[in-house]
Specification:
Blueprint: E1 4-8, H1 24-36, E2 41-47, H2 48-51, H3 60-75, E3 79-86, E4 88-89, E5 92-94, E6 100-101, E7 109-112, E8 115-117, E9 120-121, H4 128-145, E10 154-158, H5 169-184, E11 191-194, H6 198-201, H7 208-213, E12 218-221, H8 237-249, E13 253-258, E14 262-263, E15 268-274, E16 277-285, H9 286-302, E17 307-310, H10 346-357, H11 379-393
Parallel strand pairs: 1-2, 1-17, 2-3, 5-7, 10-11, 12-13, 13-17, 14-16
Antiparallel strand pairs: 4-5, 6-9, 7-8, 15-16
Length: about 400
């Protein structure tokens, strides 16, 4: 497949409480909408406490539910990316109680066993007991799912440096090697890793050249609406983030997450809180966002990415707005291609129409990025400089 198109998925009425309140009928209905929009791939998330409620136990019920999800996707001819160790999601960290230590949370709030707790994660990269638990989860899931033909790739995790930053780049690389090799013992299909914008604009010890050693293809999560050096509706930043990631890592890149919070109102700012961060976020008008998406998708294709997964499937239903993270992180309610009532936003039609246009599009020549060898000594400065150079090269 020349270019895959898809979405990241949490159910509209369940969000991160999906596995605790699993509804097969709901999944079938929503995956059918995804298929009707001509999409290929659905990225899903294995919430850690739901799949591994105890350090030495995998939840049988949710393993069966996961297989039901894959069966539904197979019936609809959809590929799936299962993502391990969730972990960080939508501005807070969702963690099993056994993973916590009695040290106050750092940047992001911790949600565990139905409540916010002021604790942080144990060392998920070096603690031998935790590594053994991780191996159990990886081995169980990959061995039980290896016969499902519709797994597009395995995703090591989602922005896991927001849960805890590895002590050194060497520790990060050693952990990635461990996870990659554990998966490959059971399944030969591609392995990737959900790194994000912060891994190219600062040093969180998951450096792209190191990540690439233990990825079959690279991923990037980039949001123009989160940048402080370009316009929220800049269509070039997301494709550039892929070009830079490829230049740093030397492997093909999937834009695994991109999007923006949208409403039918005019562009405006709101205040949201994610843990210790209290920031202003844009809410973008749906029609403006659809135009941005149309141009961004075209550029992603032209500049050689292997695909794009929009964040997110749906805005979240109002019944979830008093629950974390949506009670404080207001903007997280509105990232969908569906509204909270289930109606389609303009962005949904852009995705559907783009899939139909792909055969008529052409890849352009690769735009060279001269990444300095010491990129991670000043990553933000280098990122901004390289982006300006990129825009000049393409005449913008």
């Amino acid at each position: 497949m020349d270019f895959v198109l898809g979405v990241n998925y949490w159910p509209r009425k369940k969000a991160m409480f999906w596995w605790k309140q699993f509804d097969e009928k709901e999944v079938r209905e929503e995956f059918s909408i995804i298929k009707e929009l001509n999409l290929d791939v659905v990225r899903i998330f294995l919430l850690w406490e739901d799949f591994q409620p105890e350090i030495d136990k995998i939840d049988d019920r949710n393993m069966k539910n996961l297989k039901k999800v894959l069966d539904i996707a197979k019936e609809l001819d959809l590929m799936v990316i299962p993502t391990f160790f969730i972990g960080h999601m939508s501005g807070i960290n969702w963690l099993p109680e056994w993973l916590l230590e009695d040290i106050p949370h750092e940047r992001f709030l911790t949600y565990s066993n139905g409540k916010i707790v002021d604790k942080r994660a144990r060392d998920i990269y070096e603690d031998k007991e935790i590594l053994k638990a991780e191996e159990l989860l990886l081995d169980t899931v990959t061995s039980e799912l290896r016969d499902f033909p519709n797994i597009y790739a395995w995703d090591i995790s989602n922005e896991i440096d927001n849960v805890r930053i590895p002590r050194t780049p060497e520790v990060a690389k050693r952990w990635l090697k461990f996870v990659y090799e554990t998966i490959k013992l059971n399944d030969s299909r591609p392995v990737t890793f959900g790194i994000h914008q912060e891994d190219i604009d600062r040093n969180k010890n998951f450096r792209v050249p190191d990540v690439a050693q233990y990825n079959d293809f690279l991923c990037m999560h980039a949001y123009s609406v989160y940048t402080d050096f370009t316009d929220p509706l800049d269509p070039y930043f997301v494709p550039f983030a892929c070009i830079l990631t490829k230049a740093l890592g030397g492997k093909n890149v999937l834009m695994e997450e991109f999007g923006m919070p949208t409403t039918q109102d005019a562009t405006k700012k709101i205040v949201s809180a994610t843990g210790k961060d209290i920031t202003e976020h844009y809410l973008i008008n749906e029609k403006e966002a659809a135009e941005w998406l149309k141009e961004t998708l075209k550029l992603l294709y032209e500049f050689g990415t292997i695909g794009a997964l929009y964040w997110n499937f749906s805005d979240y239903h109002e019944s979830l707005w008093d629950k974390p993270p949506f009670d404080k992180a207001i903007h997280e309610r509105f990232f969908g291609i569906l509204r909270s009532d289930g109606s389609l936003k303009p962005a949904a039609f852009v995705l559907k129409e783009f899939k139909e246009k792909i055969p008529s599009l052409k890849r352009t020549e690769y735009v060279p990025i001269n990444v300095p060898k010491n990129y991670y000594e000043k990553p933000k400065e280098n990122l901004v400089k390289l982006y300006k150079e990129f825009l000049r090269k393409i005449g913008r």
